[in-house]
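Instructor's aside before we start: the two examples that follow are unrelated to each other. I chose them only because their records fit on one page, so don't look for a connection. First example below.
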Amino acid sequence: MPDNLGQEEYELLARLAHRYYVDGRTQEELSREFGLSRPKVQRLLERARWTGVVDIHVEAPPWLHLDLEAQLRGAFGLADAIVSPARADPQAQREEVARCAARYLERRLRDGYVVAVSHGRDTGEVPRFFRPARRLGCTFVSAMGGSPRVDAPTNPNEICRAFAERAGGRAVSLFAPAYVESAEMRDRLLAQDAVAEALRVAAAASMALVGIGGTDDDCTMVRSGCFSAEELARLRRWGAVGDVLGNYVDARGRVIASPESGRLIGLSIDDLRRIETVIAVVSEAEKPKAILGVLRAGVVDVLILDEGNARAVLGATGEDRGSGTTRGAGTARVTRRWEAPRAGTKEVVGSTTVR
């Protein structure tokens, strides 16, 4: 008998629990049978669980990582976290994560939803496995510009079209580069109705599906020609660990406002914060620092990733607990700004401003 229960209470809890869990009686039926109010029955069933009278065992498939998912939700205030099985081959790993993301979208999407979509190999893989059970009147809109050097499966306009075809919805394309030559050209493009309207639709989305980019020399931004290796190296010197929609952050989740950010055509970090559900999909093995930085930026609600990255991110959190913010714990408006080097100074001159 549990130490904190008297014999009479122990017997009552056992009878109630047996009738409820084994016999399948409803709480309403137990209320009439035992002469108790329904709220009282509910409280007693909860007490039966907490005192150990009821021990619930879930026989989960061995490839599920429910403990890792719970730890990620708790550590970062996430609405949900899904950890895919580990695969040695990078493409096989990307497909596993994409399957998980596709299943999540199939469960959560509703008629009329607007989904803002980023570029990238991870997000580009998701439509292959997306098979909703019924036609969905959803709109999929590009959340950032593309690049002619980006393969079709990773270009946001193509990803949106693939989703729309499978959902029976529509795609809204953003016909602009992800990065242009100057801030002045960016402003001129943003003044065009077609570009402004696509970004307006994306900013008002019900949901966003985004990838998390790294800062290695083989990242999408370099391969697509958006950045040179030298520009990316400069971002790394400024502390950049990763990006979401081309917005670079440091290890604490602070946005790095560099000359490159003034050339970006896409949603900002603040735009993402205003979208109700932001789903981040990531699989590459070199991404733990990038994932952690983006999580601390406070923009992600649902994280879908592989086991290796999940363990690495949680490990890094344990080593550096308390720095940065999460979506569930509030949002820090901290921006790391780049300044042009003065004569006789090094390039690494900057200030951190808090807004």
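Example two begins here.
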Amino acid sequence: MNLLKSKKFLIISGISAAVVIVAVVLIIILNKEDAYRIVKVFEVDGEANVEREDTGSLDPYANMLLVTGDHVTLDRGSLSLRADEDKYIYLEEQTELVLHATGDAANSKTKIDLLRGAITNEIQNKLLGDSSYEINTPNSTMSVRGTIFYVCVYEVDGVKYTKVTVFSGSVATRLVYKDGTVSDEEVVVGKGDEVTIFEDDTQTDYVGDPKTIVFEELPESILRKLQDLIKDGNDVSITDPEIIRILEGLAEGKSPADLIKDREDAEGASEGDAGAGEGGEESLQDGEIGQTEEGSPEGTEEAAPTDGSEDDQADGTDTPSQPLEKKKESTQSATGNEDAAKEGGTDNTSDSGQSSQDSGTVTVTFKYNGNTFGTQSVEKGGKATQPSLSPSDTGDWDFDFNTAINADTTINWK
């Protein structure tokens, strides 16, 4: 009887010991999972491959765990990786990289050797402690603390290039020479800027200083990724309407050069409108009159009456009046043109369908993109004077300024 009791005791003790061992093992495993890096495939759609040492070629799939040293390639489609739940790496097609991820959650060490192609990096939280995030290319190395940026490696006529484009935060870059040494000089690229590094047969250097990003030259996939980032609440160096403008232009078949010109023309128009609104009387010459949005002459609270203005009003014409000093200049500039007036009519279009018969003056209106850029009052038979200011860097007034003016006329910028 005592023997049976002893056996039962031993069995129960053995079971209890086994439970304790299993619990200890589970605690160790769980602690290990919590302590070490978790890097995995986030999304994949297309032709991709993971080459792992001692294992060989693997087909990546969503939530596939990656290990340090994995050689990741995307030939076609899309592939994104996630590390530590707050770091994302988006690969472009024809991209090849080697992933190095060591340390733990508190002191993570992430290094990506970008061999070819391009990646967009999104680091959602600022790195803490001794954590680091580093991108290496054949001719440069870069480190960040927390940011969104794009790195592209390409080759043209045997010259190797690395372009670093920063959408948010900043990236510190250094040159890597052919012998493997790293430059002591650090060039920091800030939000909204990009820098290019080249390597030829003789040297490795920067192609100038960091400059403003030319978004029209970015791949469409990057623009759409920026749209997603904006929707997620990220503050990047371009607005969603501007991205839409570029994408719509690409859909219409426009080239990046065409889109850049469209933007520069629009910016020039805005500057021209601002210049016309801010120039005041001092910047106007030879009878030019800047117009406010309401159509009143700039620099005057009320329109100054012209000679014979009562007749103008009675006649019902829509001739804007000028300050007295400008009217005198315009009248003087028109003298000596009587012979031209006798020669006959003009091909100019009339604003109101009739000339200012009673006042002896006509109004010349300069328009840019449908908006009034300025006006001049000219003696009938006189000549309009080309404005000294231009609404944009490119283009010209669609008019022969040697033509005699006999009616209210609109001159458009082409």
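The longest helix spans residues 2-35.
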